UniProtKB/TrEMBL annotation:
Coiled coil regions, renumbered to chain: none
Keywords: Repeat, Signal
Taxonomic classification: Bacteria, Pseudomonadati, Bacteroidota, Sphingobacteriia, Sphingobacteriales
Start and end residues of each IPT/TIG domain: 40-118
PANTHER family: NHL DOMAIN-CONTAINING PROTEIN (PTHR13833:SF71), PTHR13833
Gene3D superfamilies in UniProt: Immunoglobulins, TolB, C-terminal domain
Source organism per UniProt: Sphingobacterium alimentarium
UniProt protein name: NHL repeat-containing protein
Signal peptide: 1-18
Pfam families found in the cross-reference section: NHL (PF01436), TIG (PF01833)
NHL repeat residue intervals: 420-444
Superkingdom, natural source: Bacteria
């Protein structure tokens, strides 16, 4: 029998069984009794993936689903209903390895002895691009893209920066920022210019998801950034940061390159970092900029804020970083106390240009480039040299979620069969779908993990 048909039949049987069971116990349903313990007996099914239905059996749950919490490790499941003896819930996305199921009702928190087997399901598809290393606007099927960095807003717009390749019909290289929208089936430029003018030499992009405003830093002009406001149809506007004379002069001449700018919802400010290691905080309204931290020297590959802990600024450093122990590393800066003893630290093991999954302190990457988080605090890394996409869970465990480490190519499909060629940029939408700038394949890819 077809695998999906079999799954549908089993699901139908399960729902029917649950319905009959619920009908038989309606008369005995009771509110939670805080003087008695919550008791767990069994759950079914014993394995599954994200958004699968699960039935949790026991006693003294109560019948108000709003007062019941179910967790798979630390990931919270959606509780649909409860009869008092059976909870009907949905398996959460990416709960981590070997999840334990816990039920919280009132002051009681109880854990099932048996572990749930979580099955990760992932699929890689191509959004736009056909391998031609140039930028051409048009429909998703017609457009050509050669993007490096990506960002998303809440409305489903994908923003891409590019700085290589030509515009179709021209021999001159161009630089720019474009908007890609799957629902509208369109790729359009927001700003583009010939390489020699460098009106906006953009790398990393950032969006304030509450306002939708897109910001891009001009890499090679110390104080310049550009904003694109959806209320103005993303018309590009140059903004100049306002440094004090002492802060401005403190940034080393020749190292005044800022590849990234990142919005933090923790304090509503923007953050950028210069190649000499200085990190600046920028007020997006007044444009007042202040140097808040001096870190190690080095160019950057990526920069991102963790929305689950929005005071944490993550940075991936280039192979030119100094001291040497910071090369090809994933760093974190605590914005609450940036110059404190734990303000700046490396997370993964030293010794880049290699591959190793596992605890973050033992994990190895090969030129990790762009990084972005989903709303649950999972970090996704474009592992450029390993040709794959890696994930760092909130518990600090690194896994490979798509691509075949060390093998380049182009192939859509499941996590173990998909292939990438030097993925550079990543972005994550509100549903947790990951978009990838597959640079050497000159395509934008989409990874859906369930």
């Amino acid at each position: 029998m077809n695998h999906y048909l079999l799954k549908a039949c089993l699901l139908s049987t399960l729902i029917s069984f649950a319905s009959c069971k619920n009908e038989s116990i309606l008369s005995s349903s009771a509110a939670h009794d805080p003087t008695k313990d919550v008791v767990l007996t069994s759950f079914y099914p014993l394995q599954g993936g994200a958004r699968d239905k699960i039935l949790l059996d026991g006693e003294n749950f109560g019948t108000d689903p709003s007062k019941i919490k179910v967790y798979f490790n630390k990931a919270q499941a959606k509780v649909i209903s409860s009869s008092g003896e059976r909870i009907y819930a949905l398996v959460p996305r990416l709960p981590g390895a070997d999840p334990k199921i816990s039920v919280v009702v009132g002051a009681d928190s109880v854990v099932y002895q048996q572990q749930f087997v979580y099955r990760t399901q992932a699929l890689v598809s191509t959004v736009t691009g056909n391998g031609v290393k140039s930028f051409t606007p048009g429909t998703l099927s017609e457009a050509t893209v050669y993007g490096k960095y990506l960002e998303l807003d809440r409305e489903g717009n994908i923003f891409m920066s590019w700085r290589d390749g030509n515009t179709a019909g021209s021999s001159a290289a161009t630089f720019g920022v474009a908007r890609i929208n799957e629902a509208e089936n369109i790729v359009t430029p927001l700003i583009q210019a010939p390489a020699e003018t460098r009106v906006l030499y953009a790398n990393g992009l950032t969006v304030d998801r509450s306002t939708g405003v897109l910001t891009a830093a001009h890499e090679s002009v110390q104080e310049v950034m550009f904003t694109f406001d959806p209320k103005e149809a993303w018309y590009p506007r140059q903004r100049n940061m306002k440094y004090s004379s002492s802060d401005y002069a403190s940034i080393v001449v020749g190292d005044r390159y800022k590849n990234f700018i990142t919005f933090s919802p923790w304090d509503g400010h923007l953050y950028t970092r210069y190649r000499d290691g200085k990190v600046a905080r920028i007020n997006p309204q007044t444009l007042v900029a202040t140097i808040i931290h001096q870190g190690p020297y080095g160019s950057q590959y990526g920069q991102a804020i963790n929305p689950a802990k929005p005071w944490e600024l993550y940075i991936t450093l280039h192979s030119n970083a100094s001291p040497i122990e910071f090369r090809q590393g994933i760093m974190v800066l605590d914005l609450r106390d940036p110059d404190g003893t734990g303000g700046f630290k490396r997370l993964n093991a030293p010794g880049g240009s290699s591959f190793k999954d596992g605890p973050i302190q033992d994990a190895l990457f090969n030129f990790p480039k762009d990084i972005k988080f989903d709303n649950d605090g999972n970090m996704f890394v474009a592992d450029y040299g390993n040709h794959c996409i890696r994930m760092v869970s909130p518990e600090g465990v690194v896994t490979t979620v798509a691509g075949q480490p060390g093998k380049s190519g182009y192939k859509d499909g499941g996590p173990t069969e998909s292939l990438f060629n030097q993925p550079w940029g990543v972005a994550v939408n509100e549903l947790g779908h990951i978009y990838i700038a597959d640079w050497s394949n000159a395509r934008i890819r989409k990874l859906v993990i369930e």
